[in-house]
Write a structure and sequence with these properties.
Layout: H1 3-22, H2 28-40, H3 51-75, H4 95-113, H5 117-128, H6 133-140, H7 144-161
Length: 166
């Protein structure tokens, strides 16, 4: 297993997952954490799905953990007496950026809804709900190869529809 090739092959997907979940344009610390976890847990990988989907799952979990920890940090701020501590919002959450992010999400949702039903359901199950190919295959009651084919075609179609967002 050539680790440089793994990073090269999965870099954009990991960035996209982190960006989608955390709403942060660029977070190299989280990317690095994903690859450290991949490296440390490579021996635990079971060939029950694609290696890329395993890395995607790690990226999703790292991003969710990051959100949980940043939420806790905000919750730990307390007030004493009549003094109120004001948390200054970071510029990355400006109204303009929130609007842009909302528009992007709307376009993505619209593109997913425009997919053929069989492509839409496989995208929702594998990419949104995070099910493995095998779990999707069982849930959809179709062969594993069909799930992989539909997912490939759905991603290809989405990439064409969302080319301007890339």
């Amino acid at each position: 297993m050539n680790f440089k090739e793994i990073i090269k092959h999965n870099k954009q997907n990991v960035k996209n997952i982190i960006r989608l979940i955390t709403n942060e344009e660029d977070n190299e610390d989280l990317e690095q954490e994903v690859y450290v976890k991949v490296w440390k847990n490579a021996d635990k990988y079971k060939e029950q799905g694609s290696f890329s989907s395993w890395i995607s799952t790690i990226a999703k979990n790292v991003s969710k953990d990051y959100l949980k920890s940043s939420y806790r940090k905000k919750q730990d701020i307390t007030t004493s007496d009549d003094k109120v501590l004001v948390v200054i919002q970071d510029k990355k959450f400006s109204p303009e950026k929130k609007l842009i992010q909302t528009e992007r999400q709307t376009q993505i949702i619209k593109a997913i809804n425009e997919l053929k039903p069989k492509f839409k359901e496989v995208i929702l199950l594998c990419e949104i709900e995070g099910l493995s190919y095998e779990q999707c295959s069982k849930k959809l009651k179709c062969p594993l190869g069909t799930v992989k084919s539909r997912l490939y075609n759905a991603k290809k179609e989405l990439a064409e529809k969302l080319e301007e967002l890339m």
